[in-house]
Q: What sequence folds into this?
């Protein structure tokens, strides 16, 4: 099927649909424009308040106790309407009745007549006006207007009242619910007793016919309106009011645009447009089912540019006009940071651009700097090439932090939480390992510009449970500098991840478990640590279970202390018992032998005693042997 043939088919199909829609509407009215019957699909909404004007087309309904079924006055009976069971059934859903194939000719029309209303219907080309006169309970019908009716809505009782005072006696259009005489008619009783459990006479409700405008299927194209030669864009389709699920998609370049782009995935809901030449490309999409069709266009302005990486931009001369491609990874007070896939980043000096974290963008900018750090000035967004990209930060140690890394997307591991600032700032201090075997402090900086950022909200909530000098994290965000000190910036896009292994190891080492060579550790504290250990994920527990000394210094020290306590005390009930909650393979001894030969102090004593015993034995042997020689 050619593109031209499909478009012609689409046009014809659209005209057919329009004819069907309007033709159906015409069938619902006679030549005079008066509704003659309800057709399948007509919608009626319940009147729930007093109207300034009740003129309109209605179903007169009494609602059943279940709230989902109704009895509808059968106006099609015309002059024979005052009979038992002059109603048909209907279903109520959320205050609405939708006509089905059996719901026909029940509509009544209310029209203004002087100070009141006339209630009538049309059947067989004849009008039937419903009224009452005299003192009897009945329903009268004639072909011409009668004394007007009073129509109102009772807010207190949540019901409609249709009243006549013809003949000097008030009568109300209600549902007579007595035995086999159930019917709609004018009655002297206004259903006042229905609210008190007297269901002999039930109130009515009006359901007004609403015009339902047929919704034509539509399709919208979502994607960038600018691009550059050599780049590409993803276009997605959004459908409205399609009822068919088996649909055909056809993406194409309109006449005059064929040489500017190539399109892949042209028969799917998502297409990729590759920009091959500069110009204004008009991209067309047709979505077709068997009976439904929709069409949309998008115009993309393709520019001839030579984009460079963020790294190349940082190395270019100030004042240079450049085109830069990168991914937005942070937002600080409206100032965004953009980076290459390796985390090399720059600050965008423009707070008005509508950019989101994860957007891959093409920018035009002038190279400048702020506090000696390169940044992008006079920035314009040329294209958003893709969304929801996830960058991996550059993982650096403290010794690797240099001024060349400023504005880059940096991750620092083994950052131990120390404290957070009080007052309006949202600063947090962390200690991190340095190259001399010690630690140094790095700050995660945040000011009022951080307010409302998701990162600040998350860290504020999480930090309430962090323990100073114990909780260990990996922090990631843009690297900045203040008064010569490096810091990570609290920005939207800043992330953290608690290191369960390092955190538990520090907690274990901080616990008062040292026995001083004589006093057994508190078994209650040991059990508390066991409970916390059980809450770690499986991977973290496995690290401790299989640790062999190749882990970090903190984990190695924690495991050595753990093994020492189990070897020395084991499961000895005399010392409270210590469960092997890490499930490590430890040659645990128990009782006196274990206490003696695994305690450093008693080992020394034992060695001395054994040595003295050996010397004594040797001396004794010497004198015994000497005496033997003398006696000879």
A:
């Amino acid at each position: 099927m050619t593109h031209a043939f499909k478009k012609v088919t689409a046009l014809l199909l659209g005209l057919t649909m329009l004819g069907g829609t309007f033709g159906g509407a015409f069938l619902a009215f006679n030549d005079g424009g008066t509704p003659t019957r309800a057709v399948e699909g007509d919608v009626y909404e319940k009147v729930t308040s007093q109207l300034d004007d009740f003129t309109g087309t209605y179903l007169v309904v009494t609602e059943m106790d279940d709230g989902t079924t109704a009895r509808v006055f059968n106006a099609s009976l015309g002059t024979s309407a005052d009979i038992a069971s002059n109603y048909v059934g209907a279903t109520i859903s959320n205050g609405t009745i939708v006509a089905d194939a059996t719901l026909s000719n029940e509509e009544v029309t209310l029209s203004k007549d002087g100070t009141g209303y006339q209630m009538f219907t049309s059947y067989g080309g004849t009008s039937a006006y419903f009224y009452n006169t005299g003192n009897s309970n009945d329903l009268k019908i004639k072909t011409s207007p009668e004394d007007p009716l009073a129509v109102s809505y009772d807010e207190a009782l949540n019901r409609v009242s249709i009243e006549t005072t013809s003949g000097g006696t008030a009568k109300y259009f209600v549902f007579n619910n007595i035995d086999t005489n159930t019917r709609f008619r004018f009655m002297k009783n206004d259903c006042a007793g229905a609210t008190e459990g007297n269901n002999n006479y039930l109130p009515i409700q009006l359901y007004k016919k609403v015009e339902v405008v047929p919704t034509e299927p539509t399709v919208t194209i979502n994607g960038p309106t600018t691009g550059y030669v050599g780049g590409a864009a993803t276009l997605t389709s959004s459908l409205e009011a399609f009822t068919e699920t088996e649909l055909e998609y056809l993406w194409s370049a309109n006449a005059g645009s064929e040489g500017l782009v190539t399109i892949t995935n042209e028969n799917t809901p998502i297409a990729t447009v590759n920009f091959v030449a500069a110009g204004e490309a008009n991209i067309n999409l047709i979505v077709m089912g068997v009976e439904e069709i929709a069409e949309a266009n998008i115009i993309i302005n393709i520019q001839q540019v030579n984009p460079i990486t963020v790294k190349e931009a940082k190395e270019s001369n100030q004042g240079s006009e450049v085109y830069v491609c990168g991914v937005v990874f942070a937002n600080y007070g409206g100032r965004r940071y953009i980076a290459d896939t390796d985390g090399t980043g720059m600050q965008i000096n423009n707070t008005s651009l509508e950019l989101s974290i994860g957007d891959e963008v093409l920018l035009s900018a002038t190279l400048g700097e702020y506090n000696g750090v390169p940044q992008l000035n006079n920035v314009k967004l040329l294209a958003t090439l893709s969304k929801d990209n996830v960058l991996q930060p550059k993982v650096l140690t403290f010794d690797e932090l240099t001024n060349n890394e400023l504005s880059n997307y940096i991750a620092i591991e083994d950052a131990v939480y120390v404290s957070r600032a009080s007052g309006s700032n949202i600063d947090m201090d962390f200690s991190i390992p340095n190259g001399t075997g010690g630690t140094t402090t790095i700050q995660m900086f945040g000011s009022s510009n951080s307010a409302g950022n998701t990162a600040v909200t998350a860290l504020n909530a999480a930090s309430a449970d962090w323990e100073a000098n114990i909780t260990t994290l990996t922090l990631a965000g843009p690297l900045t500098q203040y008064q010569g000190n490096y810091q990570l910036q609290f920005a939207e896009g800043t992330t953290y991840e608690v290191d369960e292994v390092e955190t538990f190891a520090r907690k274990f080492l901080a616990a008062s478990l040292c026995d001083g060579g004589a006093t057994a550790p508190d078994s209650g504290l040991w059990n508390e640590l066991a409970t916390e250990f059980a809450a770690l994920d499986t991977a973290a527990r496995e690290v401790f279970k299989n640790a062999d000394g190749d882990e970090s210094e903190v984990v190695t020290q924690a495991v050595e202390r753990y093994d020492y306590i189990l070897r020395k005390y084991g499961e000895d009930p005399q010392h409270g018992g210590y469960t092997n909650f890490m499930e490590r393979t430890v040659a645990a001894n128990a009782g006196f032998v274990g206490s003696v030969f695994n305690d450093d102090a008693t080992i020394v004593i034992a060695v001395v005693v054994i040595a003295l015993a050996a010397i004594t034995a040797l001396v004794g042997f010497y004198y015994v042997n000497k005496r033997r020689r003398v006696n000879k």
User: Anything to note?
Assistant: The two ends are 129 Å apart (CA to CA). The first helix runs from residue 3 to 27. Residues 210 and 317 are 68 Å apart (CA to CA). DSSP finds nine helices and 35 strands in the chain.
